[in-house]
Write a structure and sequence with these properties.
The chain has ten helices and six strands; from the N terminus they run βαααααβββββααααα. It is globular, with a radius of gyration of 19 Å. It has about 260 residues and is an alpha+beta fold.
């Protein structure tokens, strides 16, 4: 990819993405696990901890630490599976192959050398919110896929396609990721990535996220996920500013399906 000093763009898992701290937000401290308080004890068998979850003896905080503990244990397995998914997508996925060709037309390149699979730690906030991410794009390094967040190959296809739209936008429009236009550029590419990647198709919204709205479901999903992603950026103060900037770019960016002819996923 083209070299640039840029803040990575992140795509969400089915919870808000990890946020970057800035001067407008209070500094968060790491919440360490206390088995006596949370009900999670890494020294016991996994099935005993799982029983504690089922029986309600483990707090939400304990469940967070349990999940992170399991992710560490299965890191090698998850990364290997993620790499197998990645290679399959570049061989057989229509959307990934199409975007790869379009990125090459702009003198960019995304392949196994710069689409990497890693375990991405989540973060537990003091209010109980769990911040997670599925992947991210950085013009200087390529695409990061959070192997521990990938449920299946379809989920990975949506995630990779989302980040590839960011890559195409960066190469095509020479995006300003860090300057004064940062938030509008970020809002526009997030709208387009959520719209074109397939992550907001009806089946994903309904059966994965439990969003059962009949009308405007696709538009609501794109808008919601774009706002969440803009909120994750350091220059964004809060959800009010994120909503405002997404609304400002909505009409032009939601109607722009390039490099596709239309939204088909």
């Amino acid at each position: 990819m083209a070299s640039s000093n840029a803040t990575p763009s992140t795509s969400q898992a089915d919870a808000p993405s990890e946020r970057n701290a800035n001067a407008n937000r209070p500094k968060q401290k790491e919440l360490l696990n206390d088995p006596a308080r949370t009900g999670f004890d890494p020294q016991t068998k996994w099935w005993m901890n799982y029983f504690n979850i089922l029986s309600g003896q483990m707090t939400k905080e304990g469940q967070f630490h349990y999940r992170e503990w399991r992710y560490k244990i299965h890191e090698e397995r998850d990364c290997k599976r993620c790499e197998e998914y990645r290679d399959w997508l570049f061989a057989y996925s229509p959307v990934v192959r199409f975007l790869s060709d379009k990125i090459q037309d702009l003198n960019g390149k995304l392949d196994a050398s710069n689409i990497v699979c890693r375990r991405c730690p989540s973060r537990l906030e003091e209010d109980g919110t769990v911040n997670r991410q599925a992947g991210g794009f950085d013009p200087k390094h390529g695409i990061l896929v959070c192997a521990n967040e990938m449920r299946d190959r379809k989920h990975m296809e949506d995630t990779v396609a989302h980040e590839m739209v960011h890559a195409w936008d960066h190469l095509r429009w020479k995006m300003d990721w860090t300057g004064d236009k940062d938030l509008k550029h970020a809002a526009c590419t997030e709208v387009r990535a959520s719209m074109l990647s397939g992550e907001c198709r009806w089946t994903r919204e309904t059966f994965t996220r439990g969003q059962w709205s009949v009308t405007q479901q696709f538009q609501n999903c794109v808008r919601r996920r774009a706002i969440q992603s803009v909120m994750a950026r350091p220059r964004c103060k809060d959800d009010v500013q994120a909503t405002k900037v997404v609304n400002e770019v909505w009409d032009s960016c939601f109607s722009d399906t390039r490099p596709f002819d239309e939204v088909y996923r």
